[in-house]
Amino acid sequence: MSIRSPKRALDAAVEAGRWAPSVHNTQPWSFAVTGEEISLRADTSRKLPVSDAAGRELLISCGAALFTMSTAMRCEGYEPAVRILPDPDRPGLVATIRPGEELEADELTRVLGGEIERRRTHRAGFADVPLPDRLIESLARGAMREGAKLTPIRAPAAVHVLAALTQAAQGVQAQDERFSLELIRWSRPPGSTRTDGVPAEAYPREPVPTEPDFPQRRYSWRHGWGTRAEPAEVSTGVVAVVTTRGDGREEWIAAGQALQRVLLHASAHGVSAAFHTQALELDLLREFLRQELCSGEYPQMVMRLGVTFDSKDVPRRPLTDILE
User: Fold this and answer.
1) Can you name one GO molecular function term for this protein (predicted)?
2) How far apart are CA 88 and CA 286, in angstroms?
3) Closest by alpha carbon to 88, among 250, 257, 287?
4) Are residue 114 and residue 138 in the same domain, yes or no?
């Protein structure tokens, strides 16, 4: 093992944090290092005021960054000492993290750490490759360790209901120009040098429907950017929902940590995720989903898991933009 150093652990955690997933790749966070402590802050200037007025998706994104930073710190030989929402007078302070006791990272932690920069979000169908039940069960156990629940939706009727809710939400949002304008704010044209948002190479111009169809965000709205979808990738994959018992800020952060654990573990097995949060952005549909499909728990993320042979680079903001 390499020589331990608190500074090295802090540097690794900050570098890793910027690779976390976020809604529309908004990367709504900033970091500040004071002594041997990192402050993870929510960047509310990057919040989606129409689709995420409460900041739920923003905090899920920050929770994903927190898990990423903790994993990097463990890989550097330290158990992270984390405080969630440590100061009620500073609501933008999501968490603080510092190197705690020394440890030897276990094999799974190192595997997760190795996927931080390799993990990618997918925005189309998947190849017709089945996922092992044992892998899905392992992903569910990992989510529970972070205080959330990952439930694969196995019943075909339930999958169709969830697809229909996604279609309904997409239809409603498509009729609301506010949603559409907010979405294309984060759509990047071909050749863009921006380091945030979704580049044209990372979304399809005209998605190929899956069966049942889980519609994609229309990042190509009104401009026709994007790539041609792979016709071989039309499988829905495994549909899953991340839920929590409560629905406050702590639960949203926990959902983000659980989500990133799932994504990194899945990535290590060649599995990617496609996200569908449209129905969760409309209160009536989210409540229906909670009561009818989630056993009363609060849905925080809807995703499809599957195998894709399409891997696109996604931009990340440089440290100079996010490190205070």
Assistant:
1) oxidoreductase activity
2) 28
3) 250
4) no
